[in-house]
Amino acid sequence: MELELKHLAPYLPYGLRIKNKTTTMPLSGYYLDELEDPQFGFDDTYKPILRPLDLTKEIEVNGEKFVPIDYLNNNGWLLDEFDLIRYNQLDYGVVTKLVEWHFDVFGLIPQGLAIDINTLNK
Fold first, then answer.
1. Are residues 26 and 46 in contact, defined by beta-carbon separation less than 8 angstroms?
2. I want to staple 83 with a disulfide (CB 3.0 to 4.6 A). Which of 41, 58, 66, 79 is the partner?
């Protein structure tokens, strides 16, 4: 599998950061060039920085620390570990929150197409 626009587009409104060996920067758009000019196309050495899909561990978003599954359960979405196994049946609002919090909803980290945020130096 290759990293495609369909994997990145949902994260665009939420300040997703991308990284290559030397640089980390926000992903602000995705340029599609039909001629595939290497000067203007998406540099495939960059990978999105995402969180593994583990909702039981504390995360920090915009300076606020919380456990995602607790946040979701306290805000009207009742989830348990079985719901996470049946990911394709999750409520749209839950998936939107996971994308907003930069969770790897497409399974990119295990395929080497994204960087696990937990592996970066703080």
1. no
2. 79
